Amino acid sequence: MTQPLRFGILGCARIARQFARDVRESPAVQLQAVASRDATKAAEFAAEFGIPRSHASYEALLADAGIDAVYIPLPNSLHAEWAIKAAEAGKHVLCEKPLALGLDEVRAMFDAARRHGVMLLESFPYYFQPQTGALLELLREGAIGSVRSMQSSFGFALSNPQGNIRFDPALGGGALLDAGCYALSIIRLVMGAAPVKVRADADWDPSGVDIATAATLYFADGRRAQFSCAMNTANHRRAVIIGSDGTLETEYLNHTSDQAAGDGWGYLPSELRVRRGISNAIPFEAVESGVGSGFRFAAEAFAAVIAAGDQAAIDRAAQASLDNAATLEAIARSSRSGLAEDVRAATT
Fold first, then answer.
1. Burial label, 128 (beta-carbon count in 10 A; 0-12, 13-18, 19+)
2. Lower Cβ count inside 10 Å, N or C end of the chain?
3. What is the pTM of this model?
4. Active site residue 91
5. Which CATH number fits domain 127-291+325-342: 3.90.870.10, 3.30.360.10, 3.40.50.720, 1.20.1250.20?
């Protein structure tokens, strides 16, 4: 049996609580430490989730010899700094999305991980859902022929935006980085490459962050994709993949349940359906998959690649993260310039 991957958590935000709750029963992962700049908060967090040690600083957690990896759920503007410091301390890093504020930061993070012999992975929980594996298998087997185009969207409303970090430009707020990175990531996953050019429009909040953004992505082989994201709409999350011989539709949810109502954590079923053929008279087929917390799936997948020393898998994910960062930058530029913008080359 492989030894469980021993995790430390940097920070005690709400998302860190959900991560701790969902992974603590995993046999592949052990939560060993948590850190906050508030010692009382860290101690209370540790007691609630049965974590053996708490630290009153992030530096102290990184110096903890009893952890192998860190989970970073900090504000977007702090991801690069602490991922690099974790790598320098010899810790593997599972980092919340978006990996950083721009391509140069993302490159620096992967450079640090390589120099110090650790693995770095951007955590989009839906990536690790069994449903996503089923989606990719349908594409590989040619269920819809060649992918010609796709659309994706993700949006939600904030009931109390005052003081929310999503509205703070200094902390990497805005719809594009918070929700748009999801809608973009599934496009990159399906298309297998970054676009070469983008054209975007945005609506702006008085705080200076984008409240909604939409973009068209142009690929070198002539394919196109469109996506939208928002922080002022009803909750919605969907991707439509259009092939030469069929169509795939998915909600690509982070966390899933087999219950339409009554799940203890509010998780819901996530739809994946396929139409094999070009006629609208052909019915869609529902595709069933395993369900559960994307946080647990992600942590267990990370533990598995570390145990196997699977650098090739990490390198593939790294290229996707670099492509996403370069594309997000171009979308942000286009949304302000009103012009089509080229996407910077993003190589490992």
1. buried
2. N
3. 0.95
4. no
5. 3.30.360.10
